[in-house]
């Protein structure tokens, strides 16, 4: 049986490019693969912009992934597809197992999310897969990694923006602050996974989080 998540070969370090400190991008999926994955996520459900459920405290339009097989495959990615990439891209992370994950899909559009305020994620590592995008605007903007104590400090001098294309995958530390620019039309759907180390708190007060905080290291 074909798996719900038809992953390409194990990711290679050279497939990833650095967008900002602690934020990286690759494009391992084709548009057809994204459409297939999108269909699997919403199979049997007439998904629209009407909020099915609140996938997290900041999004009102989207859905939590409740496909058991897909959830299990997503949970394994740090130990399979990303096994060699995560230690290389994020050498500050302590060793340990990513024992907790929260997977959800978000919808941006004229009758859905229009933008997203500056925030950090409740994760140690975030995986963000663009499944669909014909939006005007809606870029993701990274403003710098911060620890819990400095999360409201001014942004880095260079704010890095990224326009999603279907098949794009972003991988970034949870404490990399980011926001989404206002949409001017169209829509975008992304699948996100928040990964958390099972032996570490994820409030960004960890000493290793402080080690990559631009304010702490200034």
From TrEMBL:
Signal peptide: none annotated. Residues 99-197 form the Fe2OG dioxygenase domain. This is Fe2OG dioxygenase domain-containing protein. The keyword Ribonucleoprotein does not apply. Keywords: Dioxygenase, Iron, Metal-binding, Oxidoreductase, Vitamin C. Its cofactor is L-ascorbate.
């Amino acid at each position: 049986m074909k798996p719900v998540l038809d992953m390409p070969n194990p990711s290679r370090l050279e497939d990833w490019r650095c967008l900002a400190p602690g934020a990286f991008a690759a494009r391992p999926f084709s548009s057809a693969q994204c459409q297939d994955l999108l269909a699997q996520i919403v199979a049997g459900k007439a998904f629209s912009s009407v909020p099915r459920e609140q996938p997290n405290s900041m999004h009102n339009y989207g859905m939590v992934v409740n496909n058991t097989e897909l959830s299990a495959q997503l949970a394994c990615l740090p130990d399979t597809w990303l096994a060699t990439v995560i230690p290389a891209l994020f050498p500050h992370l302590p060793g340990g197992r990513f024992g907790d994950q929260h997977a959800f899909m978000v919808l941006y559009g004229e009758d859905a999310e229009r933008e997203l305020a500056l925030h950090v994620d409740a994760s140690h590592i975030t995986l963000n897969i663009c499944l669909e995008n014909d939006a005007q605007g809606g870029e993701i903007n990274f403003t710098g990694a911060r620890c819990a104590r400095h999360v409201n400090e001014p942004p880095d001098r260079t704010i890095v923006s990224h326009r999603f294309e279907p098949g794009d995958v972003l991988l970034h530390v949870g404490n990399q602050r980011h926001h989404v620019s206002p949409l001017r039309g169209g829509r975008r759907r992304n699948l996100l996974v928040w990964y958390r180390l099972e032996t570490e708190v994820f409030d960004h007060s960890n000493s290793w989080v402080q080690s990559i905080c631009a304010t702490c290291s200034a």
